[in-house]
């Protein structure tokens, strides 16, 4: 359980990208003589992932999360650094390595569009050397877990996005991979479909001890599944550690709504020197440091006549949003 | 074991793409009608060429029909396998779905070259063979084992040269992203291959033998049918086929190092 299955050391990746100036002049110039620039997409990153861990990669669009996943699964060659996944050099794409991993992309699909998903499953089973009997057993088990047993015989083009994503998952998991790379798997799904997918991934991780590397812009995916997150900003890692610690670090305060019994109490509380976020007659919202909540509340309850109070956490989306725009965590 | 696995996968490729095509019945019927009309049109064109002369580039009408027969078979193979698969490479690379192919424990060139088939091309292959058998009769060609072996060898080499050329061009998509036009140019050259090579000027003959080896694709197999091909030409065809196959394979493996995958 403690063994590192993914090791990344000083990994970098740069791409040559053509840039074009606007207007007809720019277009003609671009056609005859392309100006290219070398962009460092990933800059000297290092991390390790243990077997069975679920890791969330956080970052804004273009931060480099997908590039990291693509290097880990062997799709693109790194420009510099060391990389080992399950003991293999991913970009060599050895058969045994490929049988160990899977990549699921929320915005791309591998199922045959005009046929029912079951046909794609059997094709994948043949590709991964799984005999028909075993494939049938796995399809049955996974389709029950994913609750798509009825949709197996309906052409993919007739399925809803949620059903299609589940079928994509099944196609990607038929060979029982040890490492799952998921690039925004819940993209475009409704709330229920997102929740079902998250639940499935959690159960799959528990049952198979598979390692899961996940990128998502839906924070619920991250908070539900990942205990550890890696924050990526402009190709560099800005944070690597527990999600709880990150949230405490980024959101050291809580908002507390206090409803006073009288205007007099409300006025006194407003002038007590505490940080007031806003006030609506007898309702006052205070911002209090997390480590001082107990003592401050005790003091307020002793001094003032309070009708009710509510403690609210800052939404995770807001906190994570900060990470996406700020370089330092 | 590996061969058995690949045969099993290919059988599934055949089955799934046939099933996909059969989902759209009307489209399939239109494709079949197009194939028949295209052959009739081509023969009609040849009759127009031969209306005022008995001989073009040393070939008479009956002999020129052999080239037409081979062209029809090659066109059928192009429409059955090359067109649905090799034009898809461009799409795979542009849209980044090549990712799924590269992550499968199966040869990527095999996968992208043979995943799909278009059944309408089968009809062209059958029509092409029918025309060839007709030509064998009207040209009074004696069939023996050696003749069949040479015909089969040169036709297979033609198919492989055409495949390699097409695959080489499609592979450049990894750098140039869009190369649909280049493969269309190749199809146009194949169209030229319906006419005897000797009917072209010297410079064009050189061009079609060296740069775009159309000569190897239709003229040499036709020469074999008529007993006109020389041994060195057949050997050269086999060598050219080998060179093109190896080159396309090496180039594909080399190009994959530069694959950057489409952004998500």
Describe the structure.
Chain A has helices at 23-32, 65-72, 95-98, 117-127, 132-146, 161-173, 191-208, 219-225, 243-250, 263-270, 293-303, 316-325, and strands spanning 4-19, 35-50, 54-58, 80-85, 101-105, 179-183, 211-215, 228-233, 236-242, 253-260, 276-280, 283-289, 306-312. Chain A has 329 residues and is α/β, with parallel strands linked by helices. Chain A has two domains: 4-248, P-loop containing nucleotide triphosphate hydrolases (Rossmann fold, 3-Layer(aba) Sandwich); 252-312, 2-Layer Sandwich (Alpha-Beta Plaits), CATH 3.30.70. In chain A, a hairpin with a 2-residue loop joins strand 8 and strand 9 (236-242). The radius of gyration of chain A is 25 Å and the shape is globular. The model of chain A has no long low-confidence stretch (mean pLDDT 87). With 264 residues, chain B is mostly helical. Chain B has one domain. In chain B, 77% of the residues lie in helices and 0% in strands. In chain B, helix 2 packs parallel to helix 6 and helix 11 (214-226) runs antiparallel to helix 12 (231-256). The longest helix of chain B is centred in the first third of the chain and has 35 residues, at 61-95. Chain B is globular and about 60 Å long. The mean pLDDT of chain B is 83. Chains A and B meet through strand 5 and helix 4 of A and helix 1 and helix 4 of B.
The amount of beta strand of chain B, in percent, is: under 5%
CATH topology of the largest domain in chain A: Rossmann fold
Structural class of chain A: alpha/beta
What Rg of chain A is obtained from the alpha carbons, in whole angstroms? 25 Å
User: How many structural domains does the protein architecture of chain B include?
Assistant: 1
Helix content percent band of chain A? 25-40%
Work out the helix count of chain B: 12
Fourth-level CATH superfamily of the largest domain in chain A? P-loop containing nucleotide triphosphate hydrolases
Nearest-integer average pLDDT of chain B: 83
CA(first)-CA(last) distance of chain A: 29 Å
Largest sheet of chain A: 6 strands, mixed
| Element order of chain A: H for helix, E for strand | EHEEHEHEHHHEHEHEEHEHEEHEH
Low-pLDDT runs of chain A: none
The shape of chain A, in one word, is globular
SSE string of chain B: HHHHHHHHHHHH
List segments of chain B where confidence is low: pLDDT < 50 over at least 5 consecutive residues.
Answer: none
Q: How many distinct helices of chain A?
A: 12
Shape of chain B: globular
């Amino acid at each position: 359980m403690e063994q590192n299955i993914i090791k990344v050391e000083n990994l970098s990746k740069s791409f040559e990208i053509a840039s074009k100036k606007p207007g007809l002049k720019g277009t003609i110039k671009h056609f005859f003589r392309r100006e290219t620039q070398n962009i460092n997409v990933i800059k000297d990153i290092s991390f390790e992932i243990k077997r069975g861990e679920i890791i969330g990669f956080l970052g804004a669009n273009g931060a480099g999360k997908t590039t990291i996943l693509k290097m880990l699964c062997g799709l693109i060659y790194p420009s510099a650094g060391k990389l080992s996944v399950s003991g293999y050099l991913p970009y060599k794409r050895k058969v045994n390595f490929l049988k160990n991993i899977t990549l699921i992309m929320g915005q791309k699909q591998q199922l045959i569009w005009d046929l029912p998903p079951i046909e794609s499953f059997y094709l994948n089973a043949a590709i991964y050397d799984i005999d028909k009997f075993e494939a049938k057993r796995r399809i049955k088990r996974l389709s029950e877990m994913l609750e798509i047993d009825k949709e197996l015989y309906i052409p993919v083009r007739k399925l809803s996005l949620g059903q299609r994503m589940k079928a994509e998952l099944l196609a990607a998991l038929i060979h029982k991979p040890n490492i799952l790379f998921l690039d925004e798997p819940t993209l475009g799904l409704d709330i229920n479909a997102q929740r079902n997918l998250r639940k499935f991934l959690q159960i799959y991780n528990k049952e198979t001890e598979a390692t899961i590397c996940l990128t998502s812009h839906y924070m619920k995916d991250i908070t539900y599944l990942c205990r550890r997150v890696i924050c990526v900003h402009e190709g560099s890692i800005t944070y690597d550690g527990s999600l709880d610690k990150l949230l405490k670090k980024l959101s050291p305060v809580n908002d507390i709504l206090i409803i006073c019994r009288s205007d007099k109490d409300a006025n006194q509380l407003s002038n007590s020197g505490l940080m007031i976020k806003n006030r609506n007659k007898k309702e006052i919202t205070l911002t209090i440091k997390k480590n001082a909540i107990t003592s401050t509340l005790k003091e307020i309850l002793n001094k003032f006549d309070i009708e009710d109070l509510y403690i609210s956490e800052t939404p995770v989306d807001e906190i994570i949003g900060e990470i996406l725009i700020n370089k330092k965590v | 074991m590996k061969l058995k696995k690949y045969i099993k996968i290919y059988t599934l490729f055949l089955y799934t793409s046939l099933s996909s095509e059969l989902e759209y019945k009307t489209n399939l019927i239109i494709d079949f009608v197009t194939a028949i009309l295209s052959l009739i049109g081509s023969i009609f064109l040849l009759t127009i060429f031969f209306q005022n002369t008995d001989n073009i580039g040393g070939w008479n009408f009956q002999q020129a029909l052999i080239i037409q027969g081979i062209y029809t078979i090659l066109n059928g193979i192009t429409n059955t396998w090359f067109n649905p698969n090799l034009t898809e490479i461009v799409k795979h690379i542009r849209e980044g779905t090549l990712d799924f192919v590269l992550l499968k424990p199966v040869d990527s060139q095999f996968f992208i070259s043979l995943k799909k088939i278009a059944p309408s091309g089968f009809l062209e292959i059958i029509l092409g063979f029918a025309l060839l058998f007709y030509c064998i009769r009207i040209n009074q060609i004696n069939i023996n084992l050696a003749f069949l072996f040479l015909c089969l060898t040169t036709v297979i080499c033609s198919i492989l040269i055409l495949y390699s050329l097409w695959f080489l061009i499609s592979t450049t998509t990894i750098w140039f992203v869009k190369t649909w036009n280049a493969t269309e140019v190749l199809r146009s050259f194949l169209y030229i291959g319906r006419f005897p090579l000797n009917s072209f000027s010297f410079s064009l003959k050189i061009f079609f033998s060296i740069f775009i080896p159309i000569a190897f694709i239709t003229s040499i197999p036709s020469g074999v049918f008529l007993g006109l091909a020389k041994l060195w030409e057949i050997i050269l065809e086999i060598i050219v086929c080998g060179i093109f196959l190896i080159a396309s394979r090496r180039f594909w493996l080399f190009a994959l190092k530069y694959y950057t995958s489409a952004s998500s």
